[in-house]
Specification:
- The protein is α+β, with helices and mostly antiparallel strands.
- It has seven helices and six strands.
- Strand 3 and strand 4 form a beta hairpin.
- Helix 1 packs across helix 4 and helix 4 packs across helix 6.
- The longest helix is centred in the middle third of the chain and has 21 residues.
Amino acid sequence: MRRPALACAAVVLATAALAACGSSGDGPATAGGTPSGPAASAPAVAGPSGAPDGDPAGEDAPAAGPEDAETPALPKVPADEITPATGTFSKPQKEYLTDRVPRGMDPAAVLQTGQETCDRLRYLVKADRDIAVAAIVTGEVADAEPAVAHLCPRHQDLVDEAALGYPDGTHTGAALRPGRYRAPSPTKDCAWRLTGAKGKELAAGSSDTGRPVSLTVPASAATFISTGCYAWLPEGATR
């Protein structure tokens, strides 16, 4: 359970288990019973009939305007109007839902998403704590910070550590924090490079073993590039 493929598998298995069993409610359960599943998505809109092959939009389809480039966010339900169909929400649940429930959506469905995030973390941390933290760093477990803050504060240490880590990619400037880091589950194509002012190489390395590797980000680093290493976690964090 030390490679990204296994880490991803753990996340997928957690999601599958939750789908079969429902949220176990790491945080307080919704009064009146377990919330229903997420609201069904709107049906897809059929394209114009008789459009030529290779042109599903049709020759006469209007060009996309500026308003089509980005869908505006739906207005959110005010905090004092967030109520379940039956029963009441606890204070932590209501705090989680504040500014998160679009108009027309069942708040219980939004709450269930947060509870499932807590359940995924609980599942992953039992399997491997480093994988749980790395899954937050990479975004495989999305929106962990608000879910943990209000629904499962027992996992706050995971979020705190993840905030100091780095996923694969390019990191520059103020995003860089000097210190020692470890990649607990790299692939066999893990490679990294640290550069300073004017692109001067400070350090570089690679690993084809799939075993954990470590590096030091010096104070003089201006750019940190990582590929195939999945996630870097700060060494010395609570384990």
